[in-house]
Input
Amino acid sequence: MATVRGDKTLLNGWIKTALYQRVVQHVSSNDEVSGLTHFLKLAVKKFLNPNPVEVETEETRTLRTEVREKTDRIAQLEKQVQTLQKALETEQNANAENRKLLLAAQANINYLS
Output
């Protein structure tokens, strides 16, 4: 079926005439393809090594969307944590000030008694 010479293989087989005519039409109208052999090489390369950008599946799009949503949610949560940390720091400062005032008041009461 196939003739092998060195690192090349010659394939012989029948294909539908309509398919052949479409290939010939594509080759003749496309300047990037130099002939039938070049077209076949390009087709095989594209079939075996498809461009991942062109072959993005629905599942990939869904996963990208989920990652984007989760990244946004993480950013929101980080902002909330920062806000809560600032509020906690403010509360701790207020508590420290209140303790100082309470100690001063107790010292004043002790002094007056």
